[in-house]
Write a structure and sequence with these properties.
Layout: E1 23-30, E2 32-35, E3 40-43, E4 46-49, E5 53-62, E6 64-68, E7 74-85, E8 92-96, E9 99-104, E10 109-113, E11 128-132, E12 135-140, E13 143-147, E14 152-156, E15 159-162, E16 166-171, E17 176-178, E18 181-184, E19 188-193, E20 198-200, E21 210-213, E22 217-222, E23 225-229, E24 231-234, E25 238-243, E26 246-250, E27 252-255, E28 259-264, E29 269-271, H1 274-280, E30 303-306, E31 310-315, E32 320-322, E33 325-328, E34 332-336, E35 346-348, E36 352-354, E37 358-363, E38 379-388, E39 393-398, E40 403-408, E41 413-419, E42 428-433, E43 436-441
Parallel strand pairs: 1-5, 4-6, 5-7, 6-8, 7-9, 7-10, 8-11, 9-12, 10-13, 11-14, 12-15, 13-16, 14-17, 15-18, 16-19, 17-20, 18-21, 19-22, 20-23, 21-24, 22-25, 23-26, 24-27, 25-28, 26-29, 27-30, 28-31, 29-32, 30-33, 31-34, 32-35, 33-36, 34-37
Antiparallel strand pairs: 1-2, 3-4, 37-41, 38-41, 39-40, 39-42, 42-43
Length: 455
């Protein structure tokens, strides 16, 4: 992960700690607020903060909080049982600041909701219930419920870090956006979005546009991509995509650690550039057992790398799909792939190298893809005589009858790809499914794959 992120912009997490003696208490009351500070003013339901410092917001506000601080310094908003609801725009709008830290006070429940339609629809207008033009950090140990009624839930137009707390976001568009990056380093984050769930979309600036998950628990339900970015980097924590069109989509996806469960109506992991997606996504795969064939140019900048962790994929399209290359060096990977032959549990257009870890991929047989023939770690791949039903047991044994692995497969399947440190290339193995045996030689490309149609 360090090598992958070496050229990325630095994640800047704000400090959630503060000195109680420096706190300015802001009492929210209907459409107004009171505070003993000249840095806080109220006008027609808009509470404006104009100077760096720590401000504790409590109570209910029908209106919005605006941060407009042109001076250096951190604006720290401590939400202490605060409810902010706007019927004209965003609930919190950071117009200007060096950086902003939202602290969820211990034991408190806080709510932000924006308008269904915004009065201001210009290009400079906010596009989320919590909107920041500055670096934004959310942390603490309390809870925050964000309801986006018009567009997105939380939007950071620079970098966005979620370091702690319980954060729940619902929106009719994207859930949480960090333009330069979105880093989740702790907390419990839940997103329910009509469009993308977690997103970082700055493809113009080198090293930007990444989603990083290092710790915490992340749960996403999305009708489009659950996590979408230029790069997706998962180094720890628990990531569960309970529903999506595609669960993870980026030009580079790297999983170093963590517990990752992905449910997708199309691809579980889709490694593709924006241009590739429009032209090739969901169309099929390369020839069986090898890199992409004629008619599909491999993009060397596109990479899927799994170094560790536990990864479980449920997909109706391709399970693991890379329009470039794929590498597995470690981890425990299970793919419950498609039941239709137009896609495959594995789909890699370039080299598919396995040097460690355990991989079991089951699904349809029409578009079967196996690791590259020269992979360091051995693998077997075979179509089955007939489609096996969900709940069937797969037992893999060597030619001495020694059992290598046993799996209960939870979707219908007609093919099995398996790789582990116990598999030796060139050796014969038996794949038994509910008493029906298939003999296969490790390293032999599977029969029955179809031609180069893209991924």
């Amino acid at each position: 992960m360090a090598d992958a992120g070496a050229d990325n912009v630095e994640v800047e997490a704000g400090d959630t700690a503060y000195d109680e003696s420096d706190v300015v208490d802001v009492s929210l009351q209907g459409s107004t607020a009171t505070a003993e500070s000249d840095a806080v003013s109220t006008d027609a339901g808009t509470v404006t903060i104009t100077t760096a410092g720590t401000y504790r917001l409590s109570g209910d506000l029908t209106g919005q909080v605006v941060v407009d601080s042109a001076l250096d310094g951190v604006v720290r908003l401590v939400l202490d049982d605060a409810t902010i609801t706007s019927d004209t725009t965003a609930a919190i709008d950071v117009v200007d600041a060096q950086s902003v830290v939202v602290v969820l006070a211990d034991g408190t429940s806080n709510t932000l909701a924006d308008a269904t339609t915004y009065d201001d629809t210009s290009e400079e207008a906010p596009t989320g219930a919590l909107y920041s033009t500055a670096d934004l950090t959310i942390g603490g140990t309390g809870s925050l419920t964000v309801t986006g009624n018009a567009n997105n839930g939380i939007v950071g137009k620079d970098g966005l870090v979620i370091a702690g707390g319980t954060v729940e976001v619902t929106s009719p568009d994207d859930g949480i956006i960090g333009k330069d990056y979105l880093a989740i380093t702790g907390g419990d984050v839940t997103v329910d979005a009509v469009d993308d769930g977690l997103k970082s979309d700055n493809s113009a600036d080198a090293g930007s546009g990444f989603v990083l998950i290092e710790d915490g628990t992340v749960t996403v339900n999305s009708q489009d991509d659950a996590v979408k970015a230029v790069q997706i980097l998962i180094a720890g924590g628990t990531v569960e995509v309970v529903g999506s069109n595609e669960a993870l989509e980026a030009s580079v996806v790297i999983i170093d650690d963590g517990d990752v469960q992905l449910h997708a109506a199309d691809d579980g992991i889709n490694v593709a550039s924006a241009d590739d997606r429009a032209a090739t996504d969901g169309v099929g795969g390369p020839p069986a057992g090898g890199p992409g064939g004629a008619g599909m140019e491999v993009d060397d900048s596109l990479n899927l790398v799994i170094n560790g962790g536990t990864v479980e994929v449920w997909s109706s399209g391709d399970g693991l799909d890379s329009n470039g290359h794929a590498t597995i060096t470690g981890g425990d990977i299970t793919v419950y792939g498609p039941t239709a032959d137009g896609n495959g549990a594995l789909d890699v257009n370039g080299t598919f190298e396995v040097t460690g870890g355990t991989l079991v991929a089951t699904g349809s047989s029409g578009m079967m893809v196996a690791p590259s023939a020269d992979s360091v770690q051995g693998w077997i791949a075979t179509a089955l005589p007939a489609t096996a039903v969900a709940g069937s047991e797969v037992v893999i044994t060597d030619d001495d009858g020694t059992e290598l692995a046993t799996y209960t497969v939870e979707k219908d399947f007609a093919s099995v790809v398996f790789s582990s440190a116990d598999v030796e290339q060139g050796t014969t193995y038996t794949v038994s499914v509910d008493g029906s045996d298939t003999t296969v030689t490790a390293g032999d490309a599977p029969a029955g794959g179809h031609g180069p149609m893209g991924g």
